[in-house]
Amino acid sequence: MRARMIELSWSGLRVPAIAVELGCSQKTVRCRLHRFNSASLQGLEDLGGQGRKRRITEQERSRVISLVKTAPPGRLRWEPVGELWAFDESGPAEWTLDSLAAAAQAEGIEVGRSQVRRILLAEGVRWRRTRSWMRSKDPDFVPKGQGSSASTPARPTT
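RESULT FIELD:
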């Protein structure tokens, strides 16, 4: 499209006619013509470095993603002797965005909660278990029926 702008300009068309022909703004046509006049063929190329620079490197992004695959420090585990223990009892038992951001910061990665969220969403990574409270490993567990509760007393009628 940039080369076509130059070609139409050389054929004698004015900026408004070129803009209509190519379906772009007059400002765009003027900018491209000025760049071509000042930089010749290099003026047709893209300018590098457009947009905001990434705050963290790809290696740091990979480390944030790999944190999700590790067990949180507060998650309970069974010892071989049959007792429960955790690496850090005060740490999170499940990964949340806040706990992932804190763990990444502890590793020296300058990243915030919202950036952790964007990184994980872009990679399709799940950072939490959903609905774990709905299942029980107890063989005698019986889920309650819809809208009924044995512990809720009946309302008195008046």
